[in-house]
Design goal:
With 68 residues, the protein is an alpha+beta fold. The protein has 3 helices and 2 strands.
């Protein structure tokens, strides 16, 4: 329950076969229904390796947003 009060954002690769976006969305929506959920095209399970600049920019934007 304490996690529900924490800011959250999900960034997941559309090509993630370990945790497909449709399953991740369903699971995380139960905990953080209003949190941003972003899928990155042509990105797999290791988004930090496949799209590091994009991921860092999204994290920086998130921590400056009202969600954080």
């Amino acid at each position: 329950e304490a996690m529900r009060t924490k800011p959250a954002m999900t960034v997941i690769g559309e090509e993630d076969r370990s945790l497909p976006p449709i399953l991740a969305r369903a699971f995380l929506h139960e905990i953080w229904p209003d949190a941003p959920f972003i899928t990155l095209p042509n990105v797999g399970h290791f988004a930090q390796e496949d799209a590091p600049e994009t991921l860092v920019a999204m994290i920086e934007q998130f921590v400056r947003s009202p969600f954080a």
